[in-house]
Amino acid sequence: MVAPDENSSVPAQVPAQVPAPAYSLHASPLGEGEGSAGTVIAAVPVLVEDGELVLGPGAAELSDLVGVDLLAVLEHHADVGVDSGTPGEVHTHATPDHPRFAAVALVGLGSAEPEDFRRAGAALARVVKDRDTLLTTITGLADDAGLRAFVVGLTLGSFEFHWRKCGAKAQPVRRVVLAGGPGRQSVLDKAIAVAGAGWRARFLATVPSNIKNPAWLADQARTAAGEAGLKVQVWDEGQLESDGFGGILAVGRASATPPRLIRLDYSPRRARGHVVLVGKGITFDTGGLSIKPGEGMISMKRDMSGGAVVIAVMAALKALGCPVRVTGLVASAENAIGGDAYRPGDVIRHYGGRTTEVTNTDAEGRLVMADALAYAAAKVKPDAVVDIATLTGAMKVALGLRTGGYFANDEALADSIASAGACAGENFWRMPLAEEYEHKLASKVADGDNGAGSPGAITAALFLQHFVGGLPWAHLDVASVGDAPEDYAEWTAGPTGFGARTLLQWLERDDPLKGVR
Ligand code: BES
Ligand code: MN
Ligand code: ZN
To answer: Does 366 qualify as catalytic in the annotation?
Structure first.
């Protein structure tokens, strides 16, 4: 952990990070690894070919190694688990007498699409918890996209966070040996970077708000910047004041831990354009004086999920060889309550001068985002801006809890986001920037009103649109998918890190700005 920000009260004691699995490649992984009995799991794939269940590569070798007819095991369990080779179904067969392997896992791989690999990896992650080593031939069947999907599923399905006296409930598998030659090392390295970004975003969002405040988040950004060789700049409350960031200051005013604006810069040689990413970094959202009911406040430590995604993405760009310049901005404040809190009826002046009448202090996200977007348009002047925020509860009503929503004023950018999301295993649905609701943003005294009301996700997006200075822009509202109520595929109950994989999938392309006006 780096030295805490001088102007803040960052608690010294922080939860320990649980380590993610470590990966290596081996041409024939099953023969690998010392590992004593009970600590190694060997996994082979089950596929459906012409309607028949078949065991994939490594099965015959493994049958010999453990002295078990795995085909017979599969047939015997035809009524359970891997009955149809369903991706994500795992049947484990204990091998108690074997000197090395604790168990053999038969893993459903469906038709071996990337999605199947992701699910298989995630399912396997749960089976191998608390084991030392996983050896698997599954990736012998994978193309590059499949290998990445498997590593992402296995890593993120392993995600753990704890702050318990006696350690984590379960530990991710320590070591994973994958089938694959040395020629695939670069594919593996990129997969680890993408999975690591998802992990980091989840970690940041899971840390409780008695530790996580704007200065703490800025320290985390500094750490990430140090690892990835990014330039970093942090505005404290004094600098925010002198530069006119009225939205961020108003929202953060009542908190004992003052707001911050974080800027990270990734600048590759011969950059093919410049993108700004903006993330919402509300480290806790009480709703302010327009206070949230207790129930609605429980998960609000993760109202900085968009900011976490921006930090995590920035930290992974170099490893993915992203060809464009990227500037990450995180507008961070705690929306607290106190005698100094901003009030309904207050008028605030954003960066650049546009004013907002605050009719609801719980619509704080758009106030901090507006400042950062206006700064991006005025000072950074990129070719495109993409923002990500847990902005509106309305998104949950519109899309449920497994699909993220996005808005865009540029068709090429819109298509890029959707296709990158589909590849990365994060589904986004486009929402309309419906002009017919623009009148709802009108205020009697200011340029805009922050509590324009229903349709909530759309009026929030329309509010933000005023600050992007006409740049090509996409707005990702991930309130619907920021938090998983339970384990599901590669999601673990709690923060999902949703959006990190999509943005990286987009930004690592040869020409992310292709077709963008
Ligand atoms: N952080 C919330 C949005 C949210 C709600 C995220 C539930 C995740 C789960 C945001 O700041 C908020 O409170 N939005 C209000 C806006 C309204 C007051 C105009 C909302 O959506 O209710
Ligand atoms: Mn709010
Ligand atoms: Zn919020």
So the answer is: yes
Cα(303) to centroid of ligand 3, in Å? Answer: 5
- Bond from prior residue into 214 cis (ω within 30 degrees of 0): no
Are the C-beta atoms of residues 22 and 174 closer than 8 Å to each other? yes
**SS3 state of residue 69:** coil
Q: Is the CB of 394 under 6 A from ligand 1?
A: yes
100-148 pLDDT, tens digit per residue, is 999 999 999 988 999 999 999 999 999 999 999 999 999 999 999 999 9
Under DSSP, the state recorded for 444 is S
Angle at 309 between CA 306 and CA 311, to 5 degrees: 115
State how beta strands 231-235 and 260-266 pair: antiparallel
Among left, alpha and beta (phi > 0; psi -120 to 50; other), residue 58 is left
Instruction: Compute the distance between CA of residue 517 and CA of residue 498 in angstroms, rounded to an integer.
Output: 27
CATH class of 233-507: alpha beta
Ligand 1: residue whose CA is nearest its atom 22: 393
Summarize pLDDT for 163-186 with one digit per residue, the tens. Answer: 988 888 899 999 999 999 999 999
Closest atom of ligand 1 to 300 CA is 1
Q: Which atom of ligand 1 is nearest to the CA of 303?
A: 1
Which residue is catalytic, options 292, 402, 430, 440? 292
Q: Is 359 in the pocket of ligand 1 (CB under 6 A)?
A: no
Taking a C-beta distance cutoff of 8 angstroms, is the pair 135, 29 a contact? yes
CATH 3.40.220.10 domain span(s) along the chain: 22-195
Please name the amino acid found at residue 431. Answer: M
Residue 379 designated active-site: no
What's the confidence (pLDDT) of residue 2?
40
- How many angstroms does the Cα of residue 215 sit away from the middle of ligand 2? 20
The tally of CA atoms less than 13 A away on the side-chain side of residue 357 is: 13
Q: How many CB atoms lie within 10 A of CB 337?
A: 15
Is 34's pLDDT higher than 70? no
What number does CATH give the domain 22-195? 3.40.220.10
Cα–Cα distance between 211 and 224 in angstroms, integer? 18
What atom of ligand 1 comes closest to residue 452's alpha carbon? 19
Structure tokens at 379: 């000072």
Tell me the CA–centroid distance for residue 278 and ligand 2, in Å: 17
Outline which parts of the chain fall under CATH 3.40.630.10.
Answer: 233-507
Residue 274 has pLDDT above 50, yes or no: yes
